[in-house]
Write a structure and sequence with these properties.
seven-stranded mixed beta sheet, binds coenzyme A
């Protein structure tokens, strides 16, 4: 009997800028792992198409963590929040007109909830020097190894390059993991509200301070 059975090598993660090619995989991760997000009222296929378009819009950018070339997590944000998020999402939705019309007839309530949620949660953002983190998720098997913090720091760096001095994001008040994660990346809570009955917490990170951890060891 083989006393030393072969061991699976540890997964090697790499990081890159998100492109439209990642859209479908990102949409699937969003639909399955961001259940509290208002956008999760929309089906994965639509979300995939939406990300394909959002990433190509001015001011939108994102980063992915790849495990053997497969998307294992993503962060997505934008740097021009003076423009209301609804207008931003509508801009993308206009390019997906046919798909939106299908949703109006097939999932009207889900669509309405997603639009109202995004509109409401975007209210606090209106500040020209604030970048917005719109979504972040890492697959469960790729968590707690620094991947989430890494793709968020990449997003912060891009926001700094675009002139932002602060980053903000909203999360469900009951998302304890996100609360700890946000604290660990240097954010503080700036507001707590309820949107469509859900407790929502707003976080802010001062971008004039650098990263809270050293990522040299797991960089590409
Ligand atoms: C939030 C999320 C992106 C974090 O990804 P991650 O790869 O696990 O994050 P990291 O490994 O970089 O975590 C950095 C630090 O944050 C804290 N942290 C992260 N997840 C945590 C959790 N579930 N519980 C407690 N602390 C947590 C820890 O301090 C961690 O450092 P440590 O592992 O050395 O203790 C991931 O948990 C996720 O995808 N959650 C589901 C989606 C979601 O809720 N997104 C946010 C809504 S906007």
């Amino acid at each position: 009997m083989d006393k030393n059975p072969p061991t699976t090598p540890p997964t090697r993660y790499t990081f890159s800028e998100m492109t439209w090619e990642h859209g479908a995989a990102v949409g699937k991760i969003h639909a399955e792992h961001l259940r509290h997000s208002f956008m999760s009222y929309l089906e994965a296929r639509f979300l995939g198409r939406l990300y394909e378009v959002l990433i190509e819009l001015e001011y939108g950018f994102g980063f992915v963590v790849l495990a053997d070339d497969k998307v294992a997590g993503f962060s997505f944000g934008r740097s021009q929040p003076t423009q209301a998020p609804t207008r931003y999402v509508f801009k993308a939705a206009k390019r997906l007109a046919v798909h939106v019309i299908v949703l109006v007839f097939t999932h009207p309530i889900s669509l309405a909830k997603a639009v109202i949620g995004v509109m409401q949660s975007g209210k606090i953002i209106h500040d020209p020097d604030v970048g917005e983190l719109l979504a972040i998720a890492v697959l469960p098997e790729a968590r707690r190894g620094g991947n989430g913090a890494r793709i968020l720091e990449m997003l912060f760096e891009r926001m700094r390059q675009e002139g932002c001095t602060r980053a903000r994001w909203a999360a469900h008040g009951g998302n304890a993991g996100m609360k700890q994660f946000s604290r660990s990346v240097g954010a503080v809570i700036i507001s707590e509200t309820r949107i469509m009955g859900r407790p929502i917490v707003w976080y802010e990170r001062d971008l004039r301070a650098g990263p809270t951890r050293d990522f040299k060891d797991n960089s590409e």
